[in-house]
Design brief:
Helix content: 55-70%
Structural class: mainly alpha
Largest sheet: 3 strands, antiparallel
Distance between the termini: 49 Å
Shape: globular
C-alpha cells in the first residue's frame, strides 16, 4: 500500500451510543450533552410558557404553514435564554480559534452572535464550516442547535394542527391526516438521522476517514453505500461494512419506524383519512425504504441497483400525484474523497402551485436533450447508457435532517431526474434581492426574481444531467470517485451548461428575460462566494462562483461603476458563460482522451488564476465592504 493514510477496521469502531438518552448524559461528549439536553430544557421551558396561536390569516398553503411555524420558533428563541447561551459559546470559540489563515470570515461571524443566529435560522451555515476542522465541538454544537430548533418547529406544528379549522384545510387543498403524517415522520425519524450524521462526520474526520480506499480507486459502482476500512495498514484487504453495522443504534430504529409508518399509512387509507388516489402507493414505498435501510448487502453493484430503484420509485410517486415526498439519502459530501453517501432525510409536500411550476421548466429540459444528443453522435461509447433528460420533480422542503442542518438543500440530481425545492429557492431569492441592489444596482419585483431563480436552478440541475456524474464511465474519466477537485469541474459544468441551455431557450423561444436570468445567475455567484467555504464540501461551489465571476469580469459584462458594479449586455453575459459550458463538455466529458489528471490540472490552474486576477480580487474587496 502507499503511504497515504486510510481507516482500518480497528479505527472504524461503530458507535452504539444512544446520544438521545436523558438518563446517562454523563457518558456523552460535551458538545452533545450541552445542546441535546441542556439547550433542549431551555427551549422546552421557553415554549411551555405559552403556545402562540397559529396566524391563520397569513397562511394560504402548506408551505406558508411551515414557514409561519419556523418564524414563530425563531421569535421564541430570541426571547429565551438561548441567545445568551450562543453569545457565551461564540465568545469562547473566538478565544480558542487557531490563529491560522483561512479563518478570517469565521472570526468575523463569531464576533457577531446575531449573524450566527440568522445563519442558524436559515440553516445556511456553510461559511462557518471551517469550524469543523478548527473547532470540531463548536461545529457539532451548531449542528445540534439547528436540530433542536427544527424539532421545536415540529412540536409547535403538531399543536397548531389540532386547532386549524377543517374549512381552512380544505381551502389549502389538504387533509389534516396528510400534515399529521408528515410531522410524525419528522418527529420519529429526524433525530436519528441528525445524530447518525454527526457520528458519520466524526468518522470522516478521523485520520484517513476522508481518503478513498481501493473500492473507490477501482471505481466500484455503489461503493458510496458502504464503509470499507482495511484490515490493517499493511494489508490491501477491505472489510465491507453496511451503514447498519456502522450506526448500530440509529439504523435499526430508522428501519423500524419506516415499517411502522407504512402500517399507519395503510390504516389511514383504510379509514379514508388519506385520499386513496394520491396515497395508495406510499405504504409500498415506505417499506422499500425500510428494506433499503435494513439491507445487509455488501456487494457494491447490488447496493447501487437497490438504491437506484428507491430513487426512481420516489420520483414516480411524486410525478404520479402523491403530495407527500420522502427523500432518502443520495449525495456524498461529508466524507470527502472517501465518497460516502450522507446520512440524510428530507420531507416535502407538493401542491397545485408546485405542479404548475413543473410545466414552466420543460423547455429547458428540451434544450438539454438536444445538446446531449448532438454531442453523443458517434460517441455512444462515452457513456454507460443513453439517458433522457427527465422532468424535474418539484416538492417543498418542509423538513430536512442530516446535512440540511447547516445547508438547506435546494436541488440535486438523482438517477433519471432532478429534484428541486421551490420554497427554498424562492425564500432565498427574496432575501438575496437587497444584496443584488447594493452590489449591482438591480431592482426587480420579488416574484419575478424568484421565478428567474427557480429557472436558473433548474438549468443548473439539467446541466448536471448531461453526461451525468452518476454514469460510471463519465465518473471514471473525470475522477469524481477519487479527487475532490473533480467536483469543482462538475459544479462549474452544471452552472455554465445551464447558462448554455437558457441562452438557447432565449434564442429559440424568446420566452425568458435575459436581464432577469443574468440577475439570477449573479445571485447564485454571490451566494457561492459569500455563503460557501473554500474548503470541505463548500469548495466546489466557492470556486465555481469565482470562475464565473472571472469570466463575466474579463468580458466586461460586469464593470466597476462608482461604489458598485454595472451590468452590460445581459444576453451576451449568458452567451459567454454558455460558450465556456460547451467547451467544458467537449474537453472533459465528451472527450475519450480526458483523464482525472487533466481535470486536476484544470482546477489547479483555475484556483491560481482567480487568486492572481486583480479584477476578481478587487470585486471581492468591494463585496466585503458592501456587507
Amino acid at each position: 500500500m502507499s503511504e497515504q493514510r486510510f481507516l482500518t477496521v480497528a479505527e472504524l469502531t461503530p458507535d452504539p451510543t444512544n446520544r438521545l438518552d436523558p438518563l446517562h448524559v454523563e457518558s456523552l461528549p460535551e458538545s452533545i450533552r450541552s445542546v441535546t439536553h441542556d439547550v433542549r430544557r431551555m427551549l422546552q421551558t421557553s415554549l411551555e410558557r405559552t403556545t402562540p396561536p397559529c396566524p391563520l390569516e397569513t397562511i394560504h398553503s402548506v408551505d406558508d404553514l411551515f414557514g409561519a411555524a419556523t418564524r414563530t420558533i425563531g421569535e421564541q428563541w430570541n426571547t429565551s435564554p438561548l441567545p445568551d447561551f450562543l453569545a457565551r459559546e461564540s465568545g469562547q470559540w473566538l478565544q480558542s480559534l487557531p490563529d491560522t489563515s483561512g479563518l478570517e470570515e469565521v472570526r468575523e461571524i463569531l464576533h457577531n452572535p446575531e449573524r450566527i443566529n440568522a445563519l442558524l435560522s436559515s440553516r445556511q451555515m456553510g461559511a462557518l464550516e471551517p469550524l469543523r476542522t478548527a473547532l470540531p465541538d463548536a461545529w457539532k454544537k451548531l449542528l445540534l442547535l439547528s436540530s433542536e430548533r427544527q424539532l421545536s418547529v415540529i412540536g409547535l406544528l403538531r399543536q397548531w394542527l389540532k386547532e386549524i379549522p377543517a374549512a381552512k384545510l380544505t381551502e389549502w387543498g389538504v387533509e389534516r391526516a396528510e400534515i399529521a403524517l408528515l410531522l410524525e415522520m419528522g418527529a420519529s425519524l429526524g433525530k436519528y438521522f441528525d445524530h447518525a450524521f454527526i457520528k458519520q462526520m466524526e468518522l470522516a474526520d478521523l485520520p484517513g476517514g476522508s481518503t478513498a480506499t481501493r473500492l473507490g480507486k477501482e471505481k466500484m459502482k455503489g461503493a458510496q453505500y458502504l464503509y470499507d476500512p482495511y484490515v490493517s495498514e499493511q494489508s490491501d484487504e477491505i472489510v465491507p461494512l453496511t451503514y447498519a453495522q456502522v450506526f448500530p443504534f440509529e439504523w435499526p430504529r430508522i428501519q423500524k419506524h419506516f415499517e411502522r409508518l407504512a402500517d399507519e399509512t395503510e390504516q389511514l387509507l383504510s379509514a379514508r383519512q388519506l385520499p386513496q388516489e394520491k396515497y395508495a402507493n406510499l405504504p409500498a414505498f415506505l417499506r422499500k425504504l425500510a428494506a433499503a435501510y435494513g439491507s445487509s448487502l455488501t456487494n457494491p453493484e447490488a447496493l447501487a441497483a437497490l438504491w437506484k430503484d428507491v430513487y426512481e420509485s420516489g420520483a414516480a410517486l411524486s410525478l404520479n400525484g402523491c403530495p407527500l415526498a420522502v427523500i432518502a439519502q443520495a449525495i456524498p459530501t461529508v466524507a470527502g474523497d472517501a465518497n460516502k453517501v450522507d446520512v440524510e432525510l428530507r420531507l416535502g409536500f407538493t401542491d397545485t402551485h408546485t405542479r404548475n411550476l413543473m410545466g414552466r421548466l420543460a423547455a429547458t429540459h428540451s434544450e438539454g436533450q438536444k445538446l446531449f444528443d448532438s454531442l453523443l453522435v458517434g460517441k455512444e461509447h462515452l457513456v454507460d447508457e443513453y439517458r433522457t433528460v427527465a422532468p424535474a420533480v418539484l416538492t417543498s422542503h418542509a423538513l430536512g435532517f442530516g446535512p440540511n442542518l447547516y445547508w438547506r438543500v435546494d436541488a440535486e440530481q438523482r438517477p433519471g431526474h432532478s429534484l428541486l425545492h421551490p420554497d427554498v429557492v424562492m425564500e432565498s431569492a427574496k432575501e438575496d434581492l437587497p444584496q443584488l441592489q447594493k452590489v449591482f444596482g438591480i431592482t426587480m419585483a420579488p416574484d419575478r426574481f424568484a421565478q428567474a431563480a427557480l429557472t436558473e436552478l433548474d438549468a443548473h440541475e439539467t446541466g448536471h444531467m448531461l453526461f451525468t456524474w452518476m454514469d460510471q464511465t463519465i465518473s471514471n474519466r473525470i475522477g469524481l470517485n477519487e479527487q475532490s477537485e473533480a467536483w469543482v469541474l462538475e459544479e462549474l459544468k452544471a452552472e455554465t451548461v445551464g447558462a448554455h441551455l437558457l441562452h438557447q431557450r432565449l434564442q429559440n423561444q424568446r420566452d425568458l428575460d435575459a436581464r432577469e436570468q443574468l440577475a439570477a445567475k449573479l445571485s447564485s455567484i454571490l451566494y457561492y462566494i459569500t455563503q460557501k467555504s473554500p474548503e470541505g464540501s463548500g469548495e466546489r461551489y466557492y470556486f465555481t462562483g469565482l470562475a464565473q465571476l472571472q469570466i463575466l469580469l474579463a468580458e466586461s459584462i460586469i464593470v466597476p461603476e462608482g461604489n458598485r458594479y454595472a451590468i452590460r449586455d445581459p444576453e451576451r453575459g449568458l452567451q459567454v458563460l454558455a460558450k465556456h459550458g460547451e467547451t467544458l463538455l467537449r474537453r472533459y466529458y465528451a472527450n475519450p482522451d480526458s483523464s482525472p489528471a487533466h481535470v486536476r490540472a484544470f482546477v489547479s490552474s483555475l484556483k491560481d488564476s482567480v487568486a492572481s486576477d486583480e479584477r476578481v480580487q478587487l470585486f471581492l474587496q468591494s463585496l466585503k465592504s458592501a456587507q
